[in-house]
Design brief:
Layout lengths: L12 E2 L5 E2 L15 H42 L3 H14 L4 H12 L3 H13 L3 H15 L3 H13 L6 E7 L5 E7 L3 H6 L2 E2 L6 H8 L3 E3 L2 H4 L13 E8 L2 E9 L9 H20 L9 H13 L5 E8 L5 E9 L11 H4 L4 H4 L9 H11 L3 E12 L2 E14 L2 E8 L3 H15 L1 E7 L5 E3 L1 H7 L22 H13 L4 E8 L5 E12 L5 E10 L1 H38 L3 E7 L2 E8 L9 E8 L5 E8 L4 H18 L5 H15 L5 E9 L4 E7 L5 E4 L2 E4 L19 E4 L5 E5 L11 H13 L8 H14 L9 E8 L1
Antiparallel strand pairs: 1-2, 3-4, 3-8, 4-5, 6-7, 7-8, 9-10, 9-13, 11-12, 12-13, 14-15, 14-18, 16-17, 17-18, 19-20, 20-29, 21-22, 22-23, 23-24, 24-27, 25-26, 25-28, 28-29
Helix pairs in contact: 1-2, 1-3, 1-5, 2-3, 3-5, 4-5, 4-10, 5-6, 5-10, 6-10, 18-19, 19-20
Protein name: Transcription antitermination regulator
GO molecular function: phosphatase activity; RNA binding
InterPro entries: ANTAR (IPR005561), Bact_Sigma-Reg (IPR052016), CheY-like_superfamily (IPR011006), GAF (IPR003018), GAF-like_dom_sf (IPR029016), PAS-assoc_C (IPR000700), PAS-like_dom_sf (IPR035965), PAS_fold_3 (IPR013655)
């Protein structure tokens, strides 16, 4: 029976009964302390610092991926551009007093209908842990940007499991022969991961038991399980093995290790672990663990290390056999970093292709294919100081002379060459020039009638590559009738006067598409001065032609567009002034005195959607609100009118401010077109002087009491129109006689060179530093508003709305 304390590896043996016998651990003792302990200490601290910086960089990369998902939601749902979505996300996070990552996770969870969103929603409802959605989404985005399963394991541990107290994680890939491959791990030492890279069939481990039972298996400790597993000597706490699969098919196991006992089991935790296992299964599907043969991996690694050090092009071929086990072709499995195709094609066009697809001319007698076949069959290396290599580029054969070496390594063949001239470089330049310039070359033999076209020219004419090329004498038959005389002059210069010529014409293709073409050609004369051939090129200049047409049309429309823009700005400004006059006299509502200052944008084209309202409701309450519609112009002004009127109507129902904002969000999302806005809504009860308020992504109100100023504690609430359904938090405060409450929009404080918090602090200090109180309470309130507007440090030239409410 195998010792449960020993790890399986590739070189294990079997006992007389056929059971696997695991090799013993090699005893490792602690060496004596080095003489220069200070140097070792500095090196140790440097390694630890670099490890922390690497972990932080990975976490930041995962966070950036999550933020990009949230930006994509704003772009798709609200029609923002990428830059506007980024700014909106940052502003909302600052106004909601949460981090950008937490707001991004909240947006993704509310917009998604997947397993992570369900787990986060249920767990928050029962355990009130808002960070769960962020942890699971960060783990998921970490997997999306990971290059391999090793990076996936690191992301799962750092984002999702370490906050639950886990110390290490292993992702096992289940193989068809009942063996296991360690596809990725985190939290274990490199030596331990190498020893457990492969678990042979028949070895009982927690991961194997989870696969057999198709259910999660938990153990308080490795000793209690009496099953060998990775890291059991160093991590002696609880273990959990969860089958990982998608679509009903189990492809691996997620094994989690704790330094102490298992965490308290709950249905919520179980759902989290199942969700993480499903994400790991997806990673195994898209990022396989690799070769399951542990003995083949070192050989391949040594071969790749060898060819990567060669200074000349080199490729590794894997033979492809037929049913009779005879090689029919060779797969180009690897190329070294110095690989340059002698035909000028990029590496991506060669790597992964078959030899006969990439180099069909290699099949000629005595050519490259025949030499490779001989080396594979006999194992005898082939070397030639000068071998003919040929390839087809756009239907044109290219050849070069090269020193070629071919050798067999196991079941693979290595081909290495060194070209004698610059054929590869010239071919590459020619190919890229033709591709970028959409140029098709041709040559026509006037004696034999033979015509050679490259592939690009067939594409320009819209013909199949097997079609017959068109003679240059018949060019007029394929051109627009109005270009017949132009083509006639071109042909006379070329064929009769035997001089180089060029012209532009409109090509009529068989598929009905018209292209603007420029043709350049030159005559080829023999020793007797007789015309024998024509060489030239066609270039598609349609994009240049239509650019010139578009520029001409743009010049004609520019004046009309400017006039329309000025008219829209004038109408928007008139509408804004009709609804929101720049100033308004003090208003008495019960025991409240209300004054307003409204400062429109200086530039007419920046007319915005700032709005305010104060209404004495039938219930005896006073409605106080201020808002800001995103954007400028006529759309922002009409959106402002719609939201202001809708809130007035909704307030008549007697609902609280949080419910009013929830209804107003639905109105914004469904009854307006791509409108988003921020708002503060408050209800004041004169009898108790109780103020209840809620906000939708807006700046918090400012309270002035006893010559001091404070911002009301921010409460959560997403902006209006971002989602079809949203819930809002409600706060309340009991006002006192002499209190003054300030409601305002961001045009009062926003600066490009200062953070939002710094601007809020500046506003609070400015409000406290106003002139001494006046005997006239009305004049005192008016003075406070004028003082804040006068000392505003905003530099965005945006609308500004400011409401002052004083309790008498």
């Amino acid at each position: 029976m195998s010792d449960p304390q020993q790890p399986p590896c590739a070189d294990q043996t079997e006992d007389s009964d056929g059971a696997p016998v695991l090799p013993p651990f090699r005893a490792v003792g602690r060496s004596e302390a080095p003489a220069d302990a200070g140097v070792v200490g500095r090196l140790t601290s440097t390694v630890e610092r670099l490890s922390r910086e690497l972990a932080q960089a990975r976490a930041e990369a995962d966070g950036r991926a999550l933020v990009e998902l949230a930006k994509g939601i704003l772009v798709e749902r609200l029609g923002y551009g990428p830059a506007d979505a980024s700014r909106q996300l940052e502003d909302l996070a600052a106004q909601s007093n949460v981090s950008v990552l937490e707001l991004a996770a909240d947006l993704v969870n509310q917009a998604s209908h997947d397993r992570i969103a369900d787990v986060a929603r249920d767990f928050v409802a029962t355990a009130a842990e808002p960070s769960l959605g962020l942890r699971l989404r960060s783990a998921e985005t970490g997997m999306l940007i990971a290059d391999d399963v090793q990076a996936v394991a690191q992301s799962v541990l750092e984002h999702a499991l370490r906050p639950l107290g886990a110390q290490a994680v292993a992702i096992w890939s289940a193989n068809a022969d009942q063996s296991l491959t360690l596809a990725g791990s985190a939290g274990f030492g490199e030596q331990e991961a190498r020893l457990w890279r492969h678990v042979p069939p028949g070895v009982p481990t927690p991961a194997r038991r989870a696969l057999t039972e198709r259910a999660a298996t938990a153990y308080d400790s490795p000793d209690a399980a009496r099953l060998p597993s990775i890291g059991q000597r160093d991590i002696t706490g609880g273990r959990l093995a969860v089958p990982a699969g998608v679509g009903g098919r189990i492809t691996g196991v997620l094994e989690i290790c704790w330094p102490n006992g298992l965490p308290p089991q709950s249905q919520s935790l179980q759902r989290q672990f199942e969700t993480l296992a499903e994400l790991c299964a997806t990673a195994l599907e898209s990022r396989p663990a690799g070769d399951t043969d542990p003995a083949a991996a070192p050989q391949t690694a040594e071969l790749l290390e060898l060819i990567h050090g060669l200074p000349d092009p080199c490729m590794v071929l894997q033979p492809v056999f037929d049913t009779a086990h005879l090689p029919t072709d060779y797969l180009i499995k690897h190329v070294n970093p110095r690989f340059v195709d002698f035909a000028g094609r990029p590496r991506t066009a060669i790597l992964g292709a078959r030899l006969m697809e990439a180099y069909p001319l290699a099949a000629e007698s005595g050519g490259l294919f025949e030499k490779i076949e001989h080396v594979l069959a006999t194992g005898e290396p082939f070397r030639s100081p000068a071998m003919h290599l040929a390839a087809l580029v756009d239907g044109v054969p290219l050849a070069t002379e090269a020193a070629v070496n071919i050798s067999r390594h196991g079941t693979q063949v290595v081909v290495h060459w060194r070209t004698m001239d610059g054929t590869a470089r010239v071919a590459s330049l020619l190919q890229h020039a033709q591709r970028l310039g959409r140029i098709g070359g041709f040559e026509q033999n006037l004696r034999s009638g033979e015509i050679a076209w490259n592939d690009t020219l067939f594409d320009l004419y819209g013909l199949a590559h097997t079609a017959d090329p068109i003679s240059i004498e018949h060019l007029a038959a394929h051109a627009h009738a109005d270009d017949e005389h132009t083509i006639g002059r071109f042909l006379r210069t070329l064929l009769h006067h035997q001089r180089p010529a060029s012209t532009a014409f409109r090509l009529k293709r068989a598929d009905g598409i018209a292209r603007h073409i420029r043709v350049v050609a030159e005559p080829v004369l023999n020793q007797d001065g007789r015309l024998t051939a024509i060489r030239g090129a066609y270039q598609d200049v349609s994009s240049q032609h239509w650019t010139e047409v578009a520029l001409a049309a743009t010049r004609d429309q520019l004046a009309q567009t400017e006039q329309q823009s000025a008219e829209r700005s004038r109408l928007a400004l008139q509408l804004q002034h009709a609804i929101m006059p720049p100033s308004r006299g003090p208003l008495e509502l019960h025991d409240l005195r209300v004054a307003v200052r409204y400062r429109p944008a200086e530039k007419e084209h920046l007319v915005g959607g700032d709005w305010y309202d104060t209404v004495d409701l039938p219930s005896g309450h006073v409605l106080l609100c201020v808002g800001d519609v995103a954007g400028h112009g006529i759309d922002a002004a009409t959106g402002m009118v719609a939201l202001r009127n809708a809130l007035r109507g909704l307030a008549a129902t007697g609902a609280g401010p949080a419910q009013l904002l929830s209804w107003l969000n639905s109105v914004t999302h469904h009854l307006t077109e791509n409108v988003t806005a921020t708002a503060v809504c408050a209800l004041y009860e004169p009898g108790t002087r109780l103020l209840r308020w809620a906000r939708a992504g807006h700046l918090p109100p400012l309270l002035l009491r006893d010559e001091s100023a404070i911002h009301l504690t921010p409460i959560s609430g997403i902006l209006l129109g971002a989602l079809d359904q949203a819930d809002y938090e409600e706060g309340e405060i009991e006002l006192q006689s002499g209190d003054t409450l300030m409601l305002y929009t961001d045009g009062l404080i926003e600066r490009k060179d200062r953070s939002l918090q710094a601007s809020l602090d500046h506003l609070r200090i400015t409000a406290q530093a106003h002139a001494p109180s006046r005997s006239d309470a009305v004049a005192e309130l008016e003075h406070r508003l004028d003082h804040l507007l006068r000392h505003s440090s905003a530099d965005t030239d945006d609308d500004t709305c400011l409401i002052g409410i004083t309790v008498q």
